[in-house]
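Checked the freezer inventory, then went back to the computational side. Two predictions to log before the end of the day. The first one is the construct we discussed on Monday; recording sequence and tokens without edits.
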Amino acid sequence: MYEGNNPTALNSREWLIDALLSLMKTKPYAKITVKDLCQKADLSRQTFYNFFESKDDIILFCIKRCYLEMMDGLKSKSTLLLSDITEELIKTFYKNQDMMHLFISQNLEHLLEYELTSVIQIFAEQVNPEAGGHSHKYGTAFLTGAIAHTVLYWMKDPHPIPPKQLAELLVNILSGNYYVIKDTL
């Protein structure tokens, strides 16, 4: 994938992204071809393959860009709280809700979850660089699944709770203050 900063190249990449998002509004994702994308963006197939290996790579790039923006928002905090993380995540989904709804409507939730896993893995390593091994992987899997499914449920809900309330709910659940489980009957 292209890693440079040539303005013409970066514009071409954005045209391919815009082409896919535009086509997804009128056509099922599975029926969109690379040829369709290139025609819509008025670019060659070679240009497409200079940036992406597949349509999924465009979706993953869009999602990763959102999550990296979220990470940048968290880097400015001197002390990072769980509430900061959940608020920034929900704010990112809310800010990009049109794109997220488009992905969900095209049954691409697995790509949202896949990229969220990558970001949580990076974040977990920054927060706790000593962690590792199988336990760390299970913890990341749990956290990713819980957050991804909750946020996706929220995005699909025809009457969702307000973003701030969702962020607070996630904090309560993740900190163990939501469900009360007793060891004895």
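The second is the one RB wanted added to the comparison set:
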Amino acid sequence: MTWDSYRAADHFIMRSARLIDRHRFAFHFQSAPARPVHAALAAHRNLDGGYGNGLDPDLRGHGSQPVATETALRYLDELGAIPEDIGQGICLFLATAANEDGGVPAVLPTVRHTEAAPWYRGTDDFSSRLDVTAMITGLLHKNNVAHPWRDLATAYCWKTIDGLHWTDPHEAIGICTFLQYVPDRPRAVATMNHMATKIRAVIDVHPRATGHVHTPLDLACHPAHIARPLFTDAEIIRNLEAFEEEQRPDGGWDACWDHWDTTATLERQGMRTIQRLRILRAYGRLVPDLPHPRRSL
């Protein structure tokens, strides 16, 4: 990726991304401190410890939702150690949102009374979702956030993963995050080996795939990722090249998401642009003099 391409992405973020993602971009690529990201994220936090208030572009309501809380947890993880009070608040909310099996749904029934994407607002399925639960639980383990619900969710993830006959891309990403960070390493490695064929089968390795697809780099987002061995060096290189070629003339990347609202789509484009840049840098494809972030809180 050339310096001009990076500068185009910089201009796109400043022109089109929401405030929290502008601060994330500055943190990751301009050596800015983490404090502005924490401050922007706090505006999306509710008294119950969960997150809402439009943090997930497809959920515009105020109330806390598990999938929005997952987004908050991913953002917090980018910044370094998660503050204890915030981590405990997240767990308290998820404990109330969880089903009896310990897993959490993507959204709660309250979503029906808010502005939200039709696939959320019209859902009648509030059963536990492995993709959301595994992603959250893996990040809690990574950040050493201990809570009784986390342990219950861990048991749910192990049981559900062991019983899988098939998966999907979203679920595969959550599973790999869980297996990357869960403390039982021998079991995690054995499970990854068992799941490898199923996971690879739902990832589109073709670098010219269009639409709402998931590439090897969406799964193995850095070279040390537990899923990286599932793909050949040639497949990774081809997809890195495709990422670079898919950058639009305005500097951004398409959201690759089902369009339902112009604002939501534009917000996702900002999020996707930062995601693509972070992956390109992780694989050494950004200009060499680009600064790395300071891990300051």
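For RB: The first helix runs from residue 3 to 16. The chain has a mean pLDDT of 94. Let me know if you want it refolded.
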